[in-house]
Specification:
three-stranded antiparallel β-sheet; two-stranded antiparallel sheet; 9 strands; 46% helix; 4% strand; 19 helices; mainly alpha; globular
Length: 505
Amino acid sequence: MDRSTTAQPLAHRAALRAAASSREPLRERAAEVLWANWTGTSTVPSRALYPHQWSWDSAFIAIGLRHLSPLRAQLELETLLSAQWGDGRVPHIVFNDAVPLGAYFPGPDFWRSATAGRAAGAPADVQTSGIVQPPVHALAAWLVHRADPGLSRARSFLARLRPRLAAWHRYLLESRDAGGAGLAAVLHPWEQGMDNSPCWDGPLSRVAPAAPGAFHRADLDHGVPEDRPTDADYGRYVRLAADYRDRGYADVTGLDVTGPDATGPDVIGPGAAVGTFRVEDPAFNALLIASEYALVLIEAESGGRAAARSHERRARARALTRTLVARLWDPGRGLFLCRDLRSGELIGERGVTGLVPLVLPALPPGVAAALVRTARGPHFGLGGTARLVPSHDLTGTAFDRRRYWRGPAWFNVNWLVGKGLRLHGEDGLADGLREAMLDAAGASGFAEYVDPYTGEGYGARGFGWTAALTLDLLHEGRDGLFEGAEGESGRASEGEFAEEGWDHE
């Protein structure tokens, strides 16, 4: 026997054990954050700044919480989905009645879900917002199930969540198909999750801000203005949300009239903000497709008629991937871009939203390779000038290394990019990103977001998804997200796309 061939794996395993041991204090600190933020039925992102339950935060938190308590991770998602509206939407905030009204704005007295959302099926027994956030929930549910399948089956976890998740996806694919091409549109920057991205500057410029005296920014009670959106942008967010509320949270689809002078059924009254912000976003839709793949696996696990439908859902996920590439891929930039449905044009800003489709298993291999090159290039600097993937183009005029979503690195997005890199065979790059994320999480006190160059923390500390995804990274071997959803490798082959006539570059 050649001793060198056996010594290398043994040495590698020893190195992994040593690394895990050295990270044990970080694991304990991350767990303490999640226990401190636990309310009894869900986890707040931050006790001070975000004292309620947020939709995509809870999905990411459940992904990490499954390593500490699969039961609590299940409860996290069950609590959120119990506030689902009758039309299928999952609201972006579920309010805690025990929190004083003034602790967060916009609060339940602004959204008025039980009355303004009655026609859309808002629940009467819990107060929520009326907009949504990216649909990571089916993916989270599948990963939580995998953490303890016995407990999940004993509690009928997937069986109870599956119809709610299916209704959630149906709402997005039908009620939010504002462009008529099959992709879901976001109606507010808060829905996309990357609230203050420069990608929204163009569409938002059409929105007249709410009067400054009409609201109080509770976020500035807990953060410095230099880190947060400007007053003018915040006023636009408030205006959009208020107009959507005042029309009963009704969605309008099929905007086939575009251009700067376009009018249509989505415009209510002179100067109204409703309908002025309609955007097809690559990250939002990539996460919807990823969660469609998760539902393939959930339905297969469920058996019976649900399992029979899983083949149809897989076909839909692949079709949506084709649509995403056809609608939002820019081969010249090597990046997915947002589409402004009012003008009909792609938005030229390079946001990290354009890298998130790396998580898709049926992404054309040539597109995936181009995305990796873009991630490593001057605009995002991964593995080079930047320690973590920034939220916006490092070379762009709008880049700001510390202002909310206009440059800082966020842990959930970096986690997604890391998963995408692994899916497409870039293990070395993913390993480096993982180590940089763990270092930044520990050094920043689990900050909400960090400087992409230095890792210096900004925003809230003890942030829920930062701690949760740190736990997931510490637990990570090389597990993927979609084993079994797209064949043994978890991703499609070059030959498959050659047969379908894809433009790889």
